[in-house]
Amino acid sequence: MRSPTLLAVAHGSRDPRFADNARRLIGQIRRLRPDLDVRLAFLELSEPNVVEVLGDLTGDAVVVPLLLSDAYHARIDLPTVLSTAPAGLRVTQAAVLGADDRLLELARRRVDEVGVENPGVILTAVGSSDSSANARTRALAAQWRISTTVFATGESASLADATELLRARGATEVVVAPWFLSPGLLLDRVRAEAARLEVPVAAALGADRLVAEVVVRRYMSAITTPVPALI
């Protein structure tokens, strides 16, 4: 019996680095699970579009959102698109990547790669209109002893304010830790602001093997415990 197709769906961006990172991640997933049919699609702005890819599939598919937050795109946008899947295609939506231990380990590694000993850490992420999603993101910063969170969109403290806060709490050095899967225009804005403050910024999580492992974990969990689409 053929295993369901693993369809990884990212948001998409006008920045080509975003799609390039997603394609490299798909390569990692295929190396981990060469037995699976692994596809990539985007909600918007990048190709191929998820509607187009769904039209090419038959049988069963598990859609893994390449998203770190369980907010609007995962709860509304993606389920709405999946509800238009062609007849004969059975689609299950997996959980978002979220605060998996592997991703937290990778975020810590990215900070360590900066080479600053025991820094105060500003976790920066895309903000959401969902306050509970923002609260879950803020909780991730607790893995560093002196830390705070700044959202790159929406109402949030500035990097300057966050840097001042951490130094007031005893941090002699500060590092920005992006809770982003990929480089892109939004992270460029964060880097530009941090550069003005002379604060180093760690790398995005990227197409690391640990990210690929989380995608496969979400796929396997969805096969046994499907996540209901919220439309």
From TrEMBL:
One of its GO terms (molecular function) is lyase activity. The lineage of its organism: Bacteria, Bacillati, Actinomycetota, Actinomycetes, Mycobacteriales. Pfam families: CbiX. CDD domains: CbiX_SirB_N. This is Cobalamin biosynthesis protein CbiX. The keyword Cell membrane does not apply. It comes from the Bacteria. The keyword Metal-binding applies. Keywords: Lyase, Metal-binding. InterPro entries: CbiX-like (IPR002762), Sirohydro_Cobaltochel/CbiX (IPR050963).
